[in-house]
Amino acid sequence: MPTDAGTPLTDETRTGRRSIQKLATLLVNQIAAGEVIERPASVVKELVENSIDAGSTRITIDLERGGIELIRIADDGCGIPPDELPLALAPHATSKIREANDLDRISTKGFRGEALASIASIARMSILSRPHDADEAFVIEASGDEQGEARPASRPPGTTIEARNLFFNTPARRKFLRTPQTEQSRCMEWIRNLAMAHPRIAFIVTSDGRKVLDLAPDQSPRTRVLEILGRELDTQLIEVSIDQYDDARGIALWGLVGLPTIARATARAQHVFLSGRAIKDKTIQHALRESYRGLIEPGRHPTAVLMIEMSPEGVDVNVHPAKLEVRFRDQSMVHQAVLHAVRDALRSHDLTPSAAERSPQLGGTSDTAILAPHERVGGGGGGAPTIEPKRFAEVFTRDVPASTGGQLSYDAIRGAMEQTQDDPGQAVRESRSPTQRAGSPVFAPPSPSPEPVAIRKASKVLQIHRSYLVTEDESGIVLIDQHALHERVMFEKLLARVTTPEGEPIQLETQRLLTPAVVPAAPAAVEMLEALKPLLDRLGIDADPLGPASVAVHSFPSLLFSRKVDPVAFMGDLLERVEREGLPGLAKGGPGVADSEAALHEVLDMMACKAAVKAGDALSDDELNELMALRERVERSGSCPHGRATTVRLTIEELEKLFDRR
What is the pLDDT of residues 130-183, one digit of tens each? Predict the structure, then answer.
């Protein structure tokens, strides 16, 4: 291999092999710092966690240029004896674990013994500390691979740690830091997280000599959360609580979750703490999403602060260098606890938003404003025929020859759909099956929702522009989107029909066609039909490929027939959506349990949208009253399956503001 002129050939250059040698201590610490210390915020996190572990009641943080030039953490914790100060700066030296078994029951924030040594390797560091039973303090300094001796100093009981000139000896890493403003923002994000998790501790933060945070000690958890997230959220947060902790097993949870109206475009408003440690966990995030399913729009994320306590033996915190991720030994238990706690809390509250919360013009924020009708998911029109439905028995069995065994031809179905409906009042009544029309409840068992409590006291219901319903309650005027509300009713009805009370899946009632309905489809969508097969079977849809660009539908759900949903239009839309966006769990190899349920909900959403009454459908007084009665029996009737609000309240106070009465 050619070499540069004047460079002698060696065994290493000839063979490509380099000899094994032990790394220098400084290089080892700098490598460790690369995993633990990413930016000033990483230093702040590690040092503040040490102060918390030390039993501090007051922690003061000083930053200069976003922590790049100076990070100073002062506390009133237990302090470090002078003979242990040099050891505190040594790698893999810690007071928090003694043996391998301790790794199975870690209860402190830090435990690896890497943080101080790593920080000292890339910053000019000093530790000034005095134990509560000592007469004087001692200070020690370290910089890179240089370390001084501990010497006497003056300080009240506690510890002060300074880290100056971060990455001074690793300029390649220093140049990757952002602006001081950005780095300060990252530091403050960690400080606020730690402060939320420890309301008994006072936190004071100054940046370039200016106080930016001052939190009093011994606050209640709710007060501390509101101090940090904003007191204006007080009425927008619901308390969550569950205690399944018994004999060092199980889980206890307390938290605050936001109303659907304050859902955000990102998950940054979600703060999860495990035994005082801020974590990011996919299991908990999934449980949160599922608990809000149908209450917020897809792509939006709920606001939540969750404080979780469980036995240290039930979780492994030693799976991430910065301790951001954990591994639960019983993920299913954690998922179910979070899901049921949040879902029960939401069920117990009236989730009807006020007009001010939904509209910027009335004082709401643009982040939660109502979208225009043409932007709504599953809005009026929805792509389904707007023909008023007739009774299933009358429309779909009237012209069926006895020799067909009750099967229907697609031409007969289309003909029935194109007929003029003489009785538009059948729209809501047909949300009940033939057996339920005899007097049995719509849902078995009915699941009363706390949301429509105010509606029960409402007087008359008025239909506006054949699209919206207006009524009153003791708080003001209630506005209802008839399509969105009936869509929720239909979704819950369909969901109840494909699941037993014990949660076991069952097949939806189906109607066999005399001749198949042919659905044109893209070849890619036809190829995905096999992956859809288990889901379609459960929904009562029997469909097979009919050539490379078409699908034959042999059976279709009876309930959708009764609601005049066109099998060709529905299957065309479904296949187009699967080809364009995919559905959860429909990857090759078949869906998993959680993903298959998500896919089921996606398709039921589509069914409900197609089957619901539309904007522009006239409803009789009986239908209006029945729709309001159905609203009382349905869970989450305040939102459609897509997460859009079905109901908005214009309060008396808002009315008075509109008319300049206050």
Answer: 999 999 999 999 998 889 999 999 999 999 999 999 999 888 888 889 999 999
* Amino acid symbol at 412: A
Distances (CA, A) of 284 to 6, 287, 349: 62, 5, 22
Question: pTM of the full predicted structure?
Answer: 0.67
In three-state secondary structure terms, 244 is coil
First to last CA, the chain: 88
Cα-to-chain-centroid distance, residue 333: 18
Listed in sequence order, the residues at least 6 apart from 123 whose beta carbon sits closer than 8 Å to its beta carbon are 43, 143, 163, 164, 165, 166, 167, 168
Task: Calculate ∠ Cα 423-426-432, nearest 5°.
Answer: 160
The domains found in the chain, sorted by start residue, are: 25-215 (3.30.565.10), 221-347 (3.30.230.10), 373-498+615-652 (3.30.1540.20), 510-611 (3.30.1370.100)
Alpha helix ranges (H) inside 379-452 = 392-396, 410-418, 426-429
Q: Which DSSP string do the residues of 441-473 spell out, in sequence order?
A: -SSSS----STTHHHHT----EEETTTEEEEEE
How far apart, in whole angstroms, are the C-alpha atoms of residue 520 and residue 576?
10
Query: What whole-number distance in Å separates Cα of residue 318 and Cα of residue 403?
Result: 70
Compute the distance between CA of residue 513 and CA of residue 409 in angstroms, rounded to an integer.
5
448-465 pLDDT, tens digit per residue, is 444 443 444 445 899 999
CB 579 within 8 A of CB 522: yes
Length of the chain: 662
